[in-house]
Every structure is written in C-alpha cells, then in structure tokens.
Design brief:
The chain is 82% helix and 0% strand. The chain contains 12 helices and no strands. Helix 8 packs antiparallel against helix 9, helix 9 packs antiparallel against helix 10 and helix 10 packs antiparallel against helix 11. About 2% of the residues have low confidence.
C-alpha cells in the first residue's frame, strides 16, 4: 500500500511549526505580562529586591567572611543602602529646588524669544496664559481627582519601596539556603538544570548591576568635576542625578544630562551651557566607546539595538519602572538561554561530504 503524499511540502510544514511555537510563546509572554501588571504591587518589590540583592550580594558576602553574623550583615547592608539612596535623593532634590526658579525663568525667556520670531496667531504668551486659565477652569475637578490619585500613587510607591527593602534583607540573610529550596521545588530530575539556570541568571544580573554601577559612578564623577570647573550651582546634586539615571541605559543619561545643561543655562548663560553640553557629550562618548566595551563586555553582552528595544518594551508596559527593570531581566533571560544551549546543544557534526568531483 503506497503511503499518502503530504499535502504541504517539508519547508511549509517547518514554517508552520515555527509559527505555532512563536505564537504559543508570544501568548505565554503576554499572559505573564498581564499577570505582572495586575499584581504589580506584589511583583515589583520582588523584582526590585532581586536587583538589590544581586548588587549588594558581594558586600554582604564580604561581611560574612569577616565574621559578621548573616542577619547583622544583611541589616548593615540595608542601612547602607538607605543612607546612600536617601542622601542622593536629598542632594538631587535640594539642587533642583535651589535652581528651579532660574530654570523656569530661562524657559520663559526662551519661549518668549521663540514666540517673537516664529510665533503664529494665538501662540503668544498672553494667549497661552488665557488658554491655560480656561483649561484650569473647565477641568478643575479632573485636576483635583488627579492630585488625589497622585497622592495614592506616592503612598503605593513608598509601600513598595519599604517592602522591597525588607525583601532585600531576607534575600541576603537567607541566600545560602536558596539553592536547597530551589532544588526541593524542582520536579523530577530537573534539580541540577534548574539550579544551573538560576545561578547563570543571577550571575548575569550581578554582572549587569555591577558594571552599570561602576559606569554610573565614573560618569557622575566626570560630570560633577566638569560642572564644578564651570561653576554650575548644584554640581553635586546633578552628579547624583546622573548616577541614578545611568541605571536606565541611554535614555537615563540623556535626561540627566539635559537637566545639567538646563541648570547651566539658567544660572550661567548660553556660553556656559554650551560648555556643559560639551562635558556631557564627552562623558557619553567615553562611556559608549571605552567604558561599555571594557566593563560590560566582561559581565554581560547585549547588542545596543537589543537594549533599546528592551527599554522601549519596558516603557510601554510599566513606564519608568519598566525601563529600569527591562534590561537586567533581559540579561537574566539571556543567561538562562546560554545555560540551556550549553546543556542541550548535543548535536553531532555532519559527516564530511564526498570529495569534489566524485559522484
């Protein structure tokens, strides 16, 4: 009995199979993202705590090796984090408050110049002010509700930050038990594979956080020194802002550098602002051509195009927080994929073909 001929050729069936796999994977990712967004109050602190644990793990391990009890070492590490982050936030806010009036005045002057040279009917400052008053009159209730919702968002953010800090403490204290817990939860004989995947993902995140922190520190120091030489007010606060913004690759450095240039323009004028812009651009060139290849290539390797697409996807899902979490999570995913390829890429090489000219 002759076997039936398949309706579709082999290439079409392979293409259909790959499409089915991609659609299934996309569906799983979409459902996972929706679940994360729905339970973000619980998921976000866990993700932030994992990033903090990856960054602070070396310090905690050094304290433990020095003879400090694990709980005390975790507490000291968390206290140091609160001191550093709180100090950086205070310096940034104080610097921006001190120069806020100058920035607003500079922007008003720039807007007046633009409206005088390029403004059309209805775009003068008086027209804009009257339109703004009309909008405020019409949407006052909406603004009030927005303020209330904004207060609730601030409260939720504070609660998530406190929860993340507590989770960092527990993750650091019990990090020596993580492997045993993971192996006990692994189904069947997959304990070794699951542990290897978790360790590779953790190493990738640790490498990214360690490299990003070192690059952010160098960027902040260079820009702070440049702004001090130019006698720009709030140079320390602007340097701290650069340090914090560096954890969002590309976009964070651009935004923090723009704030530094605005402060220089508001207080020192156009020429000094150009010099400040030159300092920011020089630091960015140093980061892109020297620091990134030297530091990040030893920790985690991701193409800039992948980083930018990942940041865009994270922003579309969770805004600024998504941009912060997108790259380290992608680095962890790459680490897991590399581990799986190392373990299961057991394909044997094809046998050599016949010599040229033989049938």
């Amino acid at each position: 009995m002759q076997a039936s001929t398949p309706v579709l050729p082999e290439a079409a069936r392979r293409f259909a199979a790959w499409c089915a796999v991609l659609l299934l994977a996309a569906g799983v990712v979409y459902v996972g993202i929706r679940l994360v967004v729905e339970f973000r109050t619980a998921v976000v602190p866990v993700l932030l705590a994992l990033l903090g644990t990856a960054l602070l793990g070396p310090l905690h391990r050094r304290l433990v090796k020095a003879g400090v009890h694990r709980s005390v070492a975790a507490g000291l590490t968390c206290v140091a984090v609160v001191a550093v982050v709180g100090g950086a936030v205070y310096i940034v806010v104080a610097a921006l408050i001190d120069t806020g009036d100058e920035i607003v005045a500079s922007l008003k002057e720039a807007a007046r110049g633009v409206s005088e040279h390029f403004g059309a009917a209805g775009t003068s400052l008086d027209d804009l002010a009257s339109n703004a008053r009309e909008l405020l009159r019409k949407f006052g209730g909406t603004a009030a509700s927005g303020v209330i919702s904004g207060v609730s968002v601030v409260g939720e953010s504070i609660a998530m930050a406190v929860l993340a800090l507590l989770l960092v403490f527990f993750f650091l204290r019990d990090s020596d038990k993580a492997a045993g817990t993971l192996r006990s939860l692994a189904p069947g004989g997959s304990a070794d594979t699951l542990e290897a995947m978790a360790r590779r993902a953790l190493r990738a995140v640790e490498g990214f956080m360690r490299g990003t922190t070192l690059i952010a520190l160098i960027d902040a120091l260079c820009i702070t020194v440049g702004l001090l030489v130019l006698d720009v007010p709030g140079a320390a606060g602007l340097g701290a802002l650069v340090f914090v913004g560096a954890y969002i690759p590309y976009l964070g450095a651009f935004l923090s550098g723009a704030v530094a240039v605005l402060v220089a323009l508001a207080d020192r004028g156009f020429v000094i602002a150009l010099w400040a812009l030159g300092v920011v651009l020089a630091v960015q060139v140093l980061e892109g051509h020297v620091l990134q290849p030297m530091i990040q290539s030893r920790t985690v390797q991701m193409h800039p195009a992948v980083v930018m697409v990942t940041i865009t996807a994270g922003a579309s899902v969770a805004g600024v927080l998504g941009m912060l979490l997108a790259v380290p999570l992608t680095a962890a995913a790459f680490g897991v994929i590399q581990e799986l390829r190392t373990r299961y890429d057991d394909r044997e090489p094809l046998p050599p073909g016949p010599p040229s000219g033989e049938a």
